[in-house]
Every structure is written in structure tokens, then in C-alpha cells.
Amino acid sequence: MKPKKVLIVGKEKAFKKGSIHSVLLNKEKYQLHYLNNENLLQDPLFLKGFSLAIINKVKSIYIDSLLENKVPSIVLIGKREQHLISIVSNVQGIVSKEKPEEIHFAIEMIEKGGFYFSTALKQYIFPLMANKIPFDLDEELKYIPTILTEMELKVVEELINDKTNQQIADTLYLSKRTVEYYITSSMQKLKVNSRVGLAVKMTKAILLQNQSISIRKVQTVYA
Q1: In this predicted model, which residue has the larger pLDDT, 174 or 132?
Q2: Could you tell me the pTM of the whole model?
Q3: Is 116 helix (H, G, I), strand (E, B) or coil?
Q4: Is 155 exposed, middle or buried (0-12, 13-18, 19+ CB in 10 A)?
Q5: Cβ-based neighbour number of residue 38 at 10 Å
Q6: pLDDT tens readout for residues 156-208
Q7: CA-to-CA distance for 195 and 91, rounded, in angstroms?
Q8: What is the distance between the alpha carbons of residues 177 and 199, in angstroms, rounded to a whole number?
Q9: pLDDT for the residue numbered 223
Q10: What does the alpha-carbon distance between residue 79 and residue 98 come to, in Å, rounded to a whole number?
């Protein structure tokens, strides 16, 4: 089988020192190429040759260029970079730099048409996000349960659990095409450009709802 060409974007030296680089090199199925000129991200012919991009330095310009040219992308995030989560919502995968073994799960999930959000980062980031969501500024998040239909909510909830379209279809007894329709419809309604963006926004809404319930319970106790 011909190796898949993977474009590595940002901090080549740092990437080569990391564990994820070693994990990928141990698999002969990947052919790694390092971006040495950022201007090439604006070249559709150059990007057309890659089946996947791995972003090692979070920059919105990198993500936007790859999204525009329809190159599936995985962003590597460290614990110190968790504040950048809002920038990376339009990618197909988010992998923890501290969990290199996740890279294979992410690639496999993307190849099946799904997306991957690091389990390690979910546990670390979302509890922090729950404490930082400003109620007055995140009005839209409050109304997500009313914006989406009941079935759209069910599909997105399954999506958050890192399931592929086929797995969601099997769980909810729907056709794969129907699942794709609900996901596309939900993305349009919530104004996001990717499955990861949809999952992040929905997770924020769930956290906001849970936090609001907790606050109301505390207020009741002390009323």
C-alpha cells in the first residue's frame, strides 16, 4: 500500500522531538512532509497532494487555509495551550501532545468520516471551560436545546462521544444519510464549519446548562 502523505505544519524541531513523531515513524503507512514555507498553504495544487495535515503550532491562519482547501487536519494541543481551544474548533481532530497514542485513533476516526477529540483534553479542558463561561455573554448557548430539533440533539450527543456517522446510525436506528443530514443541519443552525466545532459548541452548552442548574440549587439552599 502506498504511504499516505501527511503534512506537518509548524515547529518542525519541536515535532521531531515529540513522541507523536516517533509513533508515526513506526508506521510505514505514513510519509511525513514538513512545511518550510507558510505561503504554500495558499497553494491548492501543493495541498492537493496531502491526505492529512497535522498542526503542531496553533495558528488560525493555518487552520483556515487547510479548511478552505479541504485538507483534513489534526491539531496537537498541550495542557499549556488549552486556552486556544476556541481557535481549533474547525478541524477534524484534536490530540493531546501528552498522549501520543491518540494520533492513531484520530487518523482512523477521520478516515471513517468521523472526528476525534482527545479524551485526555476533554477531561482537562471542559471542567475549566465550565467555570469560565460568562452567562451574560453566551446567550446563544442557552438556547441551543430550542434551536435544534429533538433528533438533531440526539445525533449531536452521539457525535460528542466520538462516534462515526455509521455508529450513530446504528445506535439511533437511522440511515447513514439521515445522520449526515442532521449533522449538516445542526452545523448550519449553530454556525460552525466542522464536526469538531459542533461538538465543542454543544459541549459548552451542556456545561453551561449543568452549571446553571448547580447555581440554582445553591440559591435554593440559601434562600
Answers
A1: 174
A2: 0.64
A3: strand
A4: buried
A5: 13
A6: 888 887 788 888 999 999 999 999 999 999 989 888 887 877 887 787 776 65
A7: 8
A8: 19
A9: 43
A10: 8
